[in-house]
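Morning!

This is the sequence you dropped in the shared folder:
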Amino acid sequence: MKEETGVPQEMNEQGVATGGPHGGGSGTAAHGAGHHEHQIELSWWRHYVFSTDHKVIGIQYMITSLLVALFGFGLMVVMRWQLSFPGKPVPVIGPLLTAVFGANLAPGGVMTPNLYNSFGAIHGTMMIFMAIVPALFAGFGNFVVPLQLGAPDMAFPRLNMASFWSFFVGVVIMLGSFLVPGGAAKSGWTSYPPLADIADTGMGFEPILNGQTLWLIGMAFNITGSLLGSINIIATIIQLRAPGLQWMRLPVFVWSELVTAFLLLLAFPPLESAAIMQLMDRLFGTSFFSPDGLIIGGRHWPASGGGSALLWQHLFWFLGHPEVYVQILPTMGIVGEVFANNTRKPLWSYKIFVYSLLSIGFLSMVVWAHHMYMTGMGQSITTFFQIFTTVISMPSVLLGTVLLLSLWGGSIRLPTPMLFALAWLPMFGIGGLTGLPLGWTPSDMVLHDTYYVIGHFHYMMAPASIMGLFAGLYYWFPKATGRMMNDFWGKVHFWMTIIFFNGVFFPMLIQGFNGVHRRWYDGGAGWQMAQPVLWLNQVMSVSAWILALGQIPFIINFFWSIWRGKKVTSDNPWQATTLEWATPTPPGHGNFLHPVAVYRGPYEYSAPGAARDFLPQWEQEESRVAEPKLSSV
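The structure's back. Tokens below.
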């Protein structure tokens, strides 16, 4: 994804371009030439590795996150074999498991309970904290938000670079934890004490180079990167909006990133504090989370002394539940952008959409303890969390209603981004509806820690989040690269993904109603009541393996299109209205050749009496020259 280097000469000391108005509707070659004439050459390392350009950093986040997602997905594929055929050697890669992890963890290519637990813990941790969230919030946020604001870069470019490298170090540490004696962390992605306080300690384990300690260190680096990125996003949106870009003219994606950034800024520090306290428990003998009277192996644990395991749960879930919305909120913004562009009409109610985002952000901070009903908090406090867990569904329903009504009367076109955006609606709906029973104490007592929870959770984290992720990738790919992804293979990718996502996760809801526990290493084979639904393990596993094959068209399409895809003939190939389409394609350093101003709201499509069906934010007067309709791409 080649970008021009350096800073345009037509910029003042604050880095803001100076010069005449810029229409940005077409003329890619001319704009690219203009950028090329005003560039200061940077070294390869400064440009592609230690870059302070928000677009390069966004691409770094995105590529790293997608590779992490591929790795986390691979862990799940191996786990599905164990759940379907417990105790049998993993085909093809079984010898590799033994070679990497040793005969203690993978004898004869068979997954032991410890290796299964390691895969489960790292799969959950990396997919949530190091794949989906960085891709949706930091990847798209870094690349798109400054462009949609008309800004030359993020507010703090060096802080932006530091945020990526802190995240990257966390990823390396987490991956490296597989290679230490005893393997990676085994206490789940939630790392509950007291198990997490004592795991991977004693004979055969290094004091620091062990799975659980490295999990905590990796998480600390990852959280630090997220906090730096959140501060940068908030400052950029508040301070660097183009003239005329009032709050109620912001694209909905910018609103979604702003709410997400505040959630991370408020909710991540308690978890980072908790991670440091758990590190203290493990390394320095403190007892923040170790209760009195803790007996391990028939002996009193020497570090136990008045700590509270429930304290960890409160600190973890204070972030853990907003984290669900940290993942889903950016997809709401992406889907809103794609819907408006491909229905060729404004969103049914922009203000309801925005106020719903704000309401979801606020309410997500006061529902965390619905994950903790089994801890015996008492009727009064559980009633509080039940009420607000139900209330938070209301703005979610309003937001979905806005999107549904936006389809009514629209001139709907169906390129690949729109297919993924449309699929987001039912996936988000299933995820939300299946969550309601878990928000009420009577039903949660029955369903808690069953596969029903896994099914609900994954509908939010996987189909909903990843549908939005792919919608954004296909939509903004031409702006980032100057080339289009192949639409046919995009649609092949879409249908394989949507069908087999449901093949993986819907049977989990059925198994959960039959009481299959989420942590059983054998998939329930040892429990008599689970026998009638065990055949669904094979259905889910086969679906997961075909789902993995279904990503091959995307991977080939993505990398092929970077170099060989059809070149765009306009800076605005989707005929969109927001400011990112006013830049050269791909944008050079500084983004805009000339200052831009905003004259209208973000989604002026099909305005009565207009010569075109779109009025960009940056055009002062409507062009009366009719443009050709967008061809199929």
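Headline: The radius of gyration is 25 Å.

More detail when I'm at my desk.
O.
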